Amino acid sequence: MNENHMDQWLNKEVSDQALIEQWPLAGLNSVLHRDNAPAVSSDGAIHPCGHWLYFVPAVHQEQIDVDGHPKRGQFIPPFNQARRMWAKSVITYNKDMNVDDRVEKKSIISRIDKKTGKSGDLIFLEIKNIYSVQTQIVREELQTIVYRDHQEYDDGIFKSTVEETPQWSQMHQLGQVELFRYSAITFNGHRIHYDSEYTRNVEGYPDIIVQGQFIATLIMSKALAAESIAACKKFTFRAVKPIFVNRKFFIEGYRAGLNKIVAWAREESGLVNMTAEIEI
């Protein structure tokens, strides 16, 4: 893709509608820890990360690219960089999204930035997702996706460790079955979550990778349960380091004053995989 054409994609917009049905929520509930917040509350409000179960990329098979994602060039610009990573999201909750709601999702490309680092060019794509029920906005998500060239994974570049003392901690060790089940309910075809040969030989990672959405969902679920709350006002998370299949990691956090929860995912070594803040 010619860099001079990037601006032509700014403010590009797509929209879709979905009925908030029970079955994917039942699937989500089946992969969440028994002690954590459920996929649906007692009054029918869906999980703060439950909107990721809907508006999935159900394109025809011939429109799927080699990595398992839909081919670029329709809504997502045709960047030359092959590797895709969900880097960050900021989700604002204005009102509950409930079972049986008919929701409209509008997605707008709000920013495209190019940065050059030691490992080459990075393209940062920012998408604003707006979820509405009967014209009333119920959720907004500002999603940042990073595109870069394939390269061999270097674990040594990650230095961030946890400095805070958690008030709660929960160990996880996700296998291929759990990853497959989460990919199934989110209709995520990205091969790095199930195809070990592709993951190693093409994208350069040592093993299959746990979905960033899955980690964020586990953080939110544990935080809500630990603090005995059912909903929140805002959720910000940032991916730092991949978590690989069958490796232990810990979801931890603490209450920071009246209106904030600080949380993270970390490895046994203490290296941080994801950071998060939840406003309540």
How would you portray this structure in words?
The protein has about 280 residues and is α+β, with helices and mostly antiparallel strands. It is about 15% helix and about 35% strand. A 10-stranded antiparallel β-sheet has the order 1-3-4-5-2-7-10-9-8-6, with helices on one face. Helix 1 runs antiparallel to helix 2. The mean pLDDT is about 95.
- Spans with pLDDT under 50 lasting ≥5 residues? none
Overall pLDDT: 94
Radius of gyration: 18 Å
Percent strand: 25-35%
Instruction: Please report the distance between the alpha carbons of the first and last residues.
Output: 42 Å
Strand order of the largest sheet: 1-3-4-5-2-7-10-9-8-6
Oligomer: single chain
Largest sheet: 10 strands, antiparallel
N-to-C SSE series? EHEEEEEHHHEEEE
Helix content: 10-25%
Count of discrete alpha- or pi-helical segments spanning 4 or more residues: 4
> How many β-strand stretches?
10
Which word captures the global form?
globular
Task: Report the structural category.
Answer: alpha+beta
Q: What's the gist of this structure?
A:
The chain has 280 residues and is α+β, with helices and mostly antiparallel strands.
List the helices and strands and how they pair.
Blueprint: E1 13-19, H1 23-31, E2 83-93, E3 102-117, E4 120-133, E5 136-148, E6 168-172, H2 176-186, H3 196-201, H4 212-226, E7 234-239, E8 249-255, E9 260-267, E10 272-279
Antiparallel strand pairs: 1-3, 2-5, 2-7, 3-4, 4-5, 6-8, 7-10, 8-9, 9-10
Helix pairs in contact: 1-2
Keywords:
280 residues, alpha+beta, 10-stranded antiparallel beta sheet, 4 helices, 34% strand, globular
